[in-house]
From TrEMBL:
This is Aspartyl-phosphate phosphatase Spo0E family protein. GO terms for biological process: regulation of sporulation. InterPro entries: HLH_DNA-bd_sf, Spo0E-like, Spo0E-like_phosphatase, Spo0E-like_sf. Pfam families: SpoOE-like. The lineage of its organism: Bacteria, Bacillati, Bacillota, Bacilli, Bacillales. GO terms for molecular function: protein dimerization activity. It comes from the Bacteria. Gene3D superfamilies: Helix-loop-helix DNA-binding domain. It comes from [Anoxybacillus] calidus.
């Protein structure tokens, strides 16, 4: 589900860039929102990987 939000935001950013330009404030704001979504996803992935690593270590 989260990957859908990321792809929708990415598409919105591309469309804004094509209409207003890559450095327009609308495009930059959307890009920053996309960055936030990507950072949330990255943190969630890292936490999941860390949890899995801890479980493996504890099981040995």
């Amino acid at each position: 589900m989260f990957h859908i939000l990321i792809e929708e935001k990415r598409q919105q950013m591309i469309e804004l860039a094509l209409v207003y330009g890559f450095t327009a404030k609308e495009t930059v704001k959307c890009s920053q929102e996309l960055d936030e979504l990507l950072n949330i996803q990255l943190k969630a992935t890292l936490v999941t990987q860390q949890d899995q690593s801890e479980k493996i270590l504890l099981s040995h």
